């Protein structure tokens, strides 16, 4: 049997029907469907080009980074190679370089998705999932360990309400309770204006 879009939708719908509160987890592979620069290959390239300059002259950190490079040269994947890092400062440097890379790519696609120039194909699946949820509990739990916000931009574009745990405006902080209250208040305001 050949997997077609219709077969996939049917099987996914069957899964969600039989699991009343499903959990959808997606990683960087889904982000790579828009641009491979969201993937590990680009991150490896970025880390290997930037980190040597950021740690130059710091012998202990250089030694630990060299272990990462040696693992990569032996064919080990990036995530496994990073297990050599134990120094907090090097962890922070890796996080900063990673964050800078993703935020540059994310900035491009935030505009492209919100203006409709780029369509994240996964949003079709999410839209179908959400549209098929029962009115009694129209909640789809989605988890992404990604640094990008492609899902949030796409949800905004197609009008899917979501809670991401943040509250605030310019200065945001994780506050799930406040985030849920804001969503409930928004729903009440929208229904009273209908």
Features:
194 residues, mainly alpha, two-stranded parallel sheet, two-stranded antiparallel sheet, 9 helices, disordered C terminus
Shape: elongated
What is the average per-residue confidence, as pLDDT, rounded to a whole number? 82
Q: Could you tell me how far the N terminus lies from the C terminus, measured between alpha carbons in angstroms? A: 47 Å
Instruction: Compute the number of helices.
Output: 9
Reported for the largest beta sheet, the result is:
2 strands, parallel
Which bin fits the share of residues in helices? Answer: 55-70%
Strand order of the largest sheet: 1-2
Number of strands: 4
**Radius of gyration (Å):** 21 Å
Task: Point out poorly predicted stretches.
Answer: 185-194
N-to-C order of helices and strands = HEHHHHHHEHEEH
Structural class estimated from helices and strands: mainly alpha
Q: What percentage of amino acids are in beta strands?
A: 5-15%
Please characterize this protein's 3D structure.
The structure is a single chain. The chain is mostly helical and 194 residues long. It has 9 helices and 4 strands, in the order αβααααααβαββα. The model is unreliable at 185-194 (pLDDT under 50). It has helices at 5-18, 28-31, 40-55, 59-73, 78-81, 88-115, 122-131, 150-158, 176-192; strands at residues 23-25, 141-143, 166-167, 173-174.
Short recap of the structure:
By secondary structure, the protein is mainly alpha-helical. 60% of the residues lie in helices and 5% in strands. Helix 3 runs antiparallel to helix 4 (59-73), helix 3 crosses helix 6 and helix 6 packs parallel to helix 8.
């Amino acid at each position: 049997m050949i997997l077609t879009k219709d077969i996939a939708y049917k099987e996914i719908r069957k899964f969600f029907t039989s699991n009343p509160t499903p959990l959808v987890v997606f990683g960087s592979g889904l982000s790579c469907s828009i641009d491979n620069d969201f993937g590990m290959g680009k991150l490896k390239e970025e880390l290997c080009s930037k980190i040597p300059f950021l740690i130059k002259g710091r012998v202990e950190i250089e030694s630990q980074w060299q272990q990462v490079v040696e693992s990569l040269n032996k064919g080990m994947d990036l995530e496994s190679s990073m297990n050599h890092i134990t120094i907090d400062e090097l962890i922070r440097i890796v996080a900063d370089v990673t964050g800078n890379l993703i935020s540059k790519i994310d900035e491009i696609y935030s505009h492209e998705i919100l203006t409709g120039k780029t369509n994240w194909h996964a949003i079709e699946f999410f839209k179908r999932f959400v549209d098929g949820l029962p009115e009694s509990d129209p909640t789809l739990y989605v988890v992404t360990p990604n640094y990008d916000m492609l899902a949030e931009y796409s949800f905004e574009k197609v009008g899917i309400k979501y809670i991401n745990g943040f509250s605030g405006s310019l200065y945001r902080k994780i506050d799930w309770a406040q985030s849920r209250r804001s969503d409930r208040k928004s729903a009440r305001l929208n229904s009273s204006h209908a």
